[in-house]
Design a protein that fits this description.
four-stranded parallel β-sheet; 9% strand
């Protein structure tokens, strides 16, 4: 029994050390060291700081399409909080090493979290970039290219209409989850877990969406429950949100990838429901879509285009001077 208690204590200590290591690895000072290394190796390039690996993929595609001539590097943080804290550290740095460093964050439910807005930071117009990608426009591209509906605009129109219907149903079913996350973010309540699997949110079929039976409080665990007064206080603000633009983007992308898989299966089936009989006889639909393949079909939002145009102008000026960190972006 004593050995088991000791083993348990050792395990907790090890977990604590792992957590401390993870926090230290994501500390702003670590990113500042990375920035210094990038500047030493490549002083003329811009540096984009983003929240995670998926963000980097999206912004890489958009940057390549908008400004293929500029050179840049990425610093990838572990979430929005790290990006904002690193930015604050660089804003207090009087050496000028923060010049030429640009920050890319999601709006989420809490925007800049009280940090100042400025020319060096871009906040998505929607909750996150996923909301921009889950759209009729991109779906039509996928239907044309990956589902091989290129010669059938009438069929594409039918499928787009079905998408509108089922996506609206999904947003309605997941409204309580978004409301709970919204309250947590606005009230500063720690959300100990957010669902990363679609099965925790809803059951998606080709033509229907059903709610998940698991208790909402078990799916999204909060450090404390919002009070009735707090819920009422922010009710109107939440109801004013546009579900397609302002609800959690990762939920939207989970839905989109699942439904596209089902559409491809239906296209390839001998007895399809949405496609005509025999439609699977030709080229097989590709249902194994990835974030890369989806974002490659997108055009960046206007606000991001404007932000990057300004960044490119800065880069050209800095390149003429010789060092990106020697010119201040305004």
């Amino acid at each position: 029994m004593t050995e088991k208690k000791e083993d348990s204590a050792d395990l907790k200590r090890n977990e604590g050390l792992v957590n401390q290591y993870r926090q230290a690895r994501g500390a702003p000072s670590v990113h500042k060291t990375t920035l210094a290394s990038l500047r030493a190796y490549d002083p003329k390039s811009l540096v984009f700081v983003c929240e995670g690996v998926d963000d980097k993929k999206v912004y890489f595609h958009w940057l390549r399409n908008l400004q293929p001539e500029i050179t840049y590097n990425f610093i990838v943080c572990n979430g929005k909080d790290q990006v904002l804290k690193f930015r604050e550290l660089m804003r207090r740095d009087l050496s000028g090493s923060g010049n030429g460093v640009l920050y890319l964050i999601d709006k989420d439910f809490d925007g800049l979290r009280g940090y100042p807005d400025d020319a060096d930071i871009h906040v998505t117009d929607t909750y996150s970039f996923e909301n921009w990608l889950v759209s009729r426009e991109i779906l039509e591209c996928i239907l044309t290219v990956d589902m091989h509906c290129h010669g059938d605009p009438a069929l594409r129109s039918v499928l787009l209409k079905r998408f509108d219907e089922i996506y609206e149903s999904f947003l309605t079913i997941t409204k309580p989850y978004n409301h709970r996350i919204y309250l947590a973010r606005i009230l500063g309540i720690d959300a100990r877990s957010l669902p990363t699997k679609l099965s925790k949110l809803a059951k998606i079929e080709l033509t229907t969406v059903d709610a998940c039976e698991e208790d909402l409080k078990n799916v999204i665990v909060l450090a404390r429950e919002p009070t009735l007064v707090e819920i009422e206080q922010y009710k109107a603000a939440f109801e004013a949100l546009d579900p397609m633009k302002d609800y959690r983007g990762k939920f939207a992308m989970l839905f989109f990838l699942k439904w596209l898989t089902l559409v491809a299966q239906d296209k390839n089936s001998e007895h399809p429901k949405l496609f005509r009989n025999g439609s699977g006889a030709g080229a097989k639909a590709n249902g194994a879509l990835t974030l890369d393949s989806i974002v490659s079909k997108s055009s960046p939002p206007r606000s991001f285009r404007v932000f990057i145009e300004r960044a490119a102008q800065y880069w050209f000026e800095a390149t003429n001077v010789g060092v990106a960190g020697s010119v201040q972006m305004t």
